[in-house]
């Protein structure tokens, strides 16, 4: 039917010679659109002929009549069974947090000699390049959510080193929201969807914050301009923990790693972010992809704030506390190298979705953090990857280290060579893999004790000294809409907590809230006339 109709239309045009049919040709350069939009057209230009004969997953060649299941015995059509049953099982469990994200490949280059601080191979040798994969993400959004939601963003980096994979899991804020690992499941439950309404719920969020006021410091970062960066390329990232490192002599230092964007830090005001999200909820993903395809490679400087063991003992605060910043004057900063992203994945699922990061993936010379939250995370991340991807998730291509010799066998694929015919137990007398001795490993153990005391001085410092007046005003404006829908009881408690942090902050939020409550509520289905945002490449909010 479709073919006959097409022939009829052509014959009608042929009768009228005055009508000229348009001639469609594939242009040599598709410059009118961005690289992400051009992807399929560019694939066709790279492959002017089909890339091969269609097969089933078992390799059986598919005859053209098998590509249509109509008027056939569908149960004997192996192609039909193959595509249908695979589609039934093509999804894997969504990440509990940081579900929505994207990824890119690149390299890390050492630019400064840091051998006096760490013997880690990837950080030693100026000019040395280490391949990496980076996954960017947003915290609470589901897979189909918006990149532009006001949330902490993630930047997880996997270094493929000669000593094993080294994973640095960083956030767009330099502080975390809590320090007790027991709080994490309850924290993300409060920030995720209400179990009855399946909606994000400001009541549960503020209730948790009020029950755990040490979260306020991170919440103020979230409600400030830093809560919505202008894309993943234009944000700094921080692994938040204090890491122990050591050199070849066994001397130990304590550092905080920082990724500093060379694109310049830029943030978006709420109204601009809302307008962009309405047009393109994948704004961050598209921006990163297009920048790399256009060879405008995103770069970050990796540096570390350093303390000595002697300095640690003299401090009047806990430097391992993840909800606070280090005090100025108690540390010095050392540059390490430069991170460059120069290649997009050829398949999103096999890289961004199957990538597995674990803060417990460390290398010699970086024994890692000592705080309780970190110790819990190094177990929890391994457990969640086992559930999501299977016990052999480190044998998936994107997660496979450069070298590995293990006694782990079998389990759900992929198993790769499954260690072939080597012994499967240790110790053994038959030359299976053996451990090594690290003479530089520090012999003394350092024990860190945490406290449950709540201290609002860090939240007060952030508001009083970190933010400018215009940034404070926007923080207040961003806070009020989150308080309007919650109960008066919780509103009063939030005002009290903010007043204890800074009297002016509490008073300003209270005044704005009262004004907002006097306005009539919006209709249930509002029709929004969103103006086109005036976008500037420069950052008007950068201090």
Characterise this structure.
The longest helix has 18 residues, at 372-389. It is globular and about 75 Å long. It folds into three domains: 28-90, Cytochrome C Oxidase, Chain J; 100-399, Beta Barrel (Catalase HpII,  Chain A, domain 1), CATH 2.40.180; 468-518, no CATH class. By secondary structure, it is an alpha+beta fold. The chain has 15 helices and nine strands. Residues 55-434 form the Catalase core domain. Its cofactor is heme. One of its GO terms (cellular component) is mitochondrion.
Largest sheet: 9 strands, antiparallel
**What would you call the shape?**
globular
Named CATH topology of the largest domain = Catalase HpII,  Chain A, domain 1
Termini, distance in Å?
A: 66 Å
Identify low-pLDDT runs: 1-17, 19-27, 535-543
Our count of helices gives 15
Structural class: alpha+beta
Strand order of the largest sheet: 4-3-2-1-8-7-6-5-9
Instruction: Tell me which CATH architecture of the largest domain applies here.
Output: Beta Barrel
Strand content: 5-15%
In total, the number of strands is: 9
Calculate the mean pLDDT score and round it. Answer: 89
Q: What is the H level of CATH, i.e. the homologous superfamily of the largest domain?
A: Catalase core domain
**Measured on Cα atoms, how large is the radius of gyration?**
28 Å
- CATH domain class name of the largest domain: Mainly Beta
String of helices and strands = HHHEEEEHHHEEHHEHEHEHHHHH
Measured as a percent range, the helix fraction is 25-40%
